[in-house]
């Protein structure tokens, strides 16, 4: 018997919350377990880690999007950001903070379900908006990093061990090391030599990846 994917929704649009409940109610293999208006409320009302949380990028409570993503990831959930607009800088910032995917709200149910299933399986939901943003970050001094490279960089540079960063990303330690080696090589090619964990943390601060 296939495992049921648990899903949560954090959005302060009541019509969207009602729509999500209706949309997901009868989808085989998915179970909506919580829907709230804020991340704080979501974390306070869910007793166990939810597999995938659909997170509205900008909430009216004034919370910082990157912090919301990190709080949900720290609670053991993977995060699919949903937004009304495909803003490139917001997409890059969300991925840097640990989001596993980014979809605009005009996508249909099959696209949403496919993204949830991909993320629950440990992958990344590569929407056209997300792929475009990651490929067109126009700062010439900032290397173009893949979503997984960004995630491992941010976690490792924040103080995690490589093993912990790998576990959080759902990959092996060797794969995580490969990602970090690629990150270092890309910074080297950009004329910004990066060798140590301290160097990586400095690059995160310089590129604003820790304060999105």
From TrEMBL:
4-aspartylphosphate sites (modified residues): 56
Segments forming domain Response regulatory: 6-120
Keyword Transferase assigned: no
Xref: Pfam families: Response_reg (PF00072)
PROSITE patterns: RESPONSE_REGULATORY (PS50110)
Keywords: DNA-binding, Phosphoprotein
Name of the protein this chain belongs to: Response regulator transcription factor
Organism in which the protein naturally occurs: Streptomyces silvisoli
């Amino acid at each position: 018997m296939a495992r049921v994917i648990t899903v949560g929704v954090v959005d302060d649009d009541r019509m969207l919350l009602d729509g999500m409940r209706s949309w997901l109610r009868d989808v085989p293999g998915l179970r909506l377990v919580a829907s709230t208006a804020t991340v704080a409320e979501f974390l306070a009302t869910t007793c166990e880690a939810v597999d995938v949380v659909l997170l509205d990028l900008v909430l009216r409570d004034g919370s910082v999007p990157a912090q919301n993503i990190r709080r949900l990831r720290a609670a053991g959930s993977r995060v699919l950001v949903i937004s009304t607009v495909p803003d490139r800088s917001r997409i890059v910032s969300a991925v840097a903070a640990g989001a596993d995917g980014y979809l605009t709200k005009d996508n249909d149910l099959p696209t949403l379900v496919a993204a949830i299933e991909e993320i629950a399986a440990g992958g990344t939901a590569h929407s056209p908006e997300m792929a475009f943003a990651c490929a067109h970050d126009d700062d010439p001094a900032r290397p173009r990093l893949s979503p997984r490279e960004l995630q491992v960089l941010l976690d490792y540079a924040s103080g995690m061990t490589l093993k912990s960063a790998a576990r959080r990303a759902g990959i092996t330690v060797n794969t995580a090391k490969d990602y970090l080696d690629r990150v270092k090589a890309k910074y080297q090619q950009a004329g910004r030599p990066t060798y140590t964990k301290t160097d990586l943390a400095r690059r995160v601060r310089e590129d604003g990846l820790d304060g999105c």
